[in-house]
What does this fold into?
Amino acid sequence: MRRLIDEPRVRQGAVLLVALVLVAAVILQWQTIVDAIAEIGKLSAATVVVLALLGVLDRISRAEVIHSLLPELTLTRSEMISDVGAAASKGIPAGGPIATVLRWQLARERWVTGTRFIVMLIASGVATAFVSWGYPLVATVVDMAGRDADLADLVIVAVCAAVLGGAALFWLLMLRSERAHRFVTARSEWFVARWPAVLGDVDPAASDRDLAVRIVDEIRDGLRLVARRPVGLLLRTLVAQGTGAVILWVALRGLGVGDELHISEFARVYFVAHILGSLAPTPGGVGVIEAGVTGALVAAGVDTELALAGVLVYRFITYVMPIVLGTAWYVWWRCQSSTGPAAGAGRVVRSVRSGSDAVH
It folds into this structure.
């Protein structure tokens, strides 16, 4: 298997296949692009400018999450990693693993070791989960303060609180339990035995067990360091996750939605529908998020045409544009790689020595 992966023709074929799939994803979303542009034409110039600025903020805030965990990367490289990964995960069916591989290749070119990359993936994923479930919890509680709670409110609060509490308990055990450490180390030996060089420099004389222990220790130390100072990461993730809601809110207001949609009710509707959409099997929740958010807005009192128009504009900025930009980044990156020197030639890969070296 390893020889097959290292075969140049196989690698070139994989690159071409990913590029073709990403371009196909853009083509398949063409009707959405056309419909969204038609709706944008109904917006005022000021609203379009605000939406454009919010779209830029959305990209920068997501890149800043990566940059904060891997500060040796430039913000531009972090944006490239974010956009290319988003294009693969949103544009390719079951594209999550492909997105991870592409992100790793882009990070590795800037001397990021495998353990640091894994710390970034886990930390950013955990922060996203906490923010995604915390938003509807806070929004629902705020909304309940001004009216009598119904059964749906109680279910939302109970589910969100249970998920957040369970996640906090799980990671507390994973980072502090020696039993969990031994369990993860034992499972890591299988991976190390097959791909020993993937995670950085290794000692050829070291056993698989020793390498697995070192790798798990470095990842755990890095995650512990992030957990000691989580506020910065959570705030950055809060901005990244919240920008999408602001985009939809501005689009709806620009299209004429008024007081029939209270901001606290909007926040609850948006984030509950977003969580349901994120669980959908389709790439990027396509179809599910559109239907879910539109239906929730209509149920909240918004006119059907206005709700659909606002959702189209929102999805154009947060779903279609990342696929387009990520595809452009990917093609540019591969063109640069094919015409320039081999990525990482002559470099010295440094390992992560401790948690303080893993995350600054």
Confidence is low (pLDDT under 50) at residues 1-6, 341-360. Residues 96 and 353 are 29 Å apart (CA to CA). The two ends are 36 Å apart (CA to CA).
